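One such shown below:
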Amino acid sequence: MNFTIPSIPLGNWIEAGLDFLTGHYSNITRGISTVTQTGISSLNDGLMWLPPWVLIIAIALLSWRLAGVRLAMFSILGLGLIWNLGLWDPMIESFTLVVIATFVAVIIALPLGILAALSERFYRIIMPVLDFMQTMPAFVYLIPAIPFFGIGSVSAIFATVIFSMPPAIRFTTLGIRQVPVELMEAADAYGATKSQKLVKLQLPLSLPTIMAGINQTIMLALSMVVIAAMIGANGLGSEVWRAIQRLQPGAGFEAGIAVVILAMLLDRLTQTLRGKPE
C-alpha cells in the first residue's frame, strides 16, 4: 500500500499573498515608486550635469582630506580609468542606486538596531529574522520586487534595501550592547535617563561599530545593484549583463573593473569615517 504525503502548497500561498498585497496596496506602492524614481532621476541628473573631471577632483580632494594622499591618487587614477573606458554614466547610475538604497536601509536599520539592543524580547525576535534574510539567496529578493514596483531601478532599490539592511541592524545592536557596564553604572549614578544614556553615552561609544555595519551595508548594496540589472536596473550591472548576453568578455571585464574601483573607493572612505582607516 503506497503512502503519499501531500505537498504543502507554500508557493501558492506566497503567490496569493503577493496578489493580495499588490491588489490592495497598489496606490501606496505606486506613490513610493514615483517618489523613489524622482529621487533617482534628480540625483542622477545632478551628478551627470557636472563634468567628470570636476567630480573626480572633488572626490580626490575629499579622499585626501579624509584619508590622505594615497586614496586621493587612487580616486584620480581609478575614476579617470572609468571615464576613459566610457563607463562614467553607468558608474554614476550605480553610485546613485547605492547611495539611495544605503540611505533608506540605514534609516530603517538604526532604530531597529537600537530597539534590539535595548529590548531583550525584540532582540530574540529579530535575530532569527536577520539570519533568514542573510541566508536567503540574493536573487530571490528580486522576485517580490517586480509585482510591487515593476521592472526598473525602483525594484532594484527595494531589493537592495532588504538585502543590505541586516548588517547595519546587527552592528548597531552589537555596538550598543558592548558599551562597558561600568560606564552605564556611572551614568546611572549621575541620574542620567535612558534617553540621555543612549544619546550621550551608548551611541557615541558604539559609533565605530555602527559605521562598520554601514560599511558592510554599502558593500552589499553595491553587489545587489549589479545583480539587479537582471530586472532592468541601469548602471554597471547592466553593462555586465549586456556583455554576458552578447558574449563580450572584454566589455564585461571592463565593467567589472569599474565595479571593483567604485567598491574600493566607497569602502576606504567609509573606513576613514569609522576613525580606523586601514
In short: The domain at 23-275 is CATH 1.10.3720.10 (MetI-like fold). The two ends are 67 Å apart (CA to CA).
